[in-house]
Amino acid sequence: MADVHQALPLETDEHVVAVRKAVREHAIDMKLSLVDQTKLVTAASELARNTIKYGGGGMVLLERLRDGLRSGLRLVFADTGPGIPDIELALRDGYTSGNGLGLGLGGTKRLVDDFTIDSRPGDGTAVAIIKWKI
Ligand SMILES: Nc1ncnc2c1ncn2[C@@H]1O[C@H](COP(=O)(O)OP(=O)(O)O)[C@@H](O)[C@H]1O
Ligand SMILES: [Mg+2]
User: Which ranges carry the Histidine kinase/HSP90-like ATPase domain (predicted)?
Assistant: First the structure.
């Protein structure tokens, strides 16, 4: 069972703040530990900034999940920007096409339970993450 709770815009720094706040609230409501709350907020923050900086803006969908005994939060960051031509390269620690540290995608992948990138040059990018509370 999944039910979409929220769709939030991602165009400005204020939007990033709002997404961090919403994710923190869901994480608390799911009873994630403080460490896991922070991991999830950090992951969301990195992806939100990528959506704005590289995707030219977009949105994030926040979806609460329930699977038997566990509950989770799924976040999908979507834009209609240029896409990622080489996903493997983009995931590599230290790779940036801008002036970042190149740790956002790889770092995010390590902070969550599930991580998928769907991107085609010219079509945009969707990055989906899931964090479960066991
Ligand atoms: N939404 C996106 N659209 C297009 N390219 C992206 C997107 N997100 C990430 N990328 C590409 O992946 C690279 C690596 O991203 P990341 O690991 O977050 O590092 P950084 O943000 O420091 O560049 C970016 O430099 C960019 O080339
Ligand atoms: Mg980044």
Answer: 35-134
